[in-house]
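Teaching assistant's notes for section 4

Start the section by putting this record on the projector. Ask students to predict, before seeing the second block, whether OBSCN protein will look compact or extended. Collect guesses on the board.
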Amino acid sequence: EPDVTIVSGLKDMVVSEGDDVTFCCQVSHEDARDVEWKLQDVALQNNEMNEISVEKGKIHTLTLRKVTEQDIGTVAFRVGPHTSTA
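Reveal the predicted structure now:
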């Protein structure tokens, strides 16, 4: 299986409280398996507040819904040994 790398990393975002914010990360190969999103070192799951999806097989997106001050911090995307943060 080829080593999956990050082609296009996360970008820092500034949003107002109550807004949604979306982070995108593009990887080099489709169907990457060992993928993880974190906010402030806490692993995120797909639920009503966090929408995690993959577009076109390579673009991984995380949408945080109705952010609050508690959501301030570092968002991290990891695929295998490679990490991007914002």
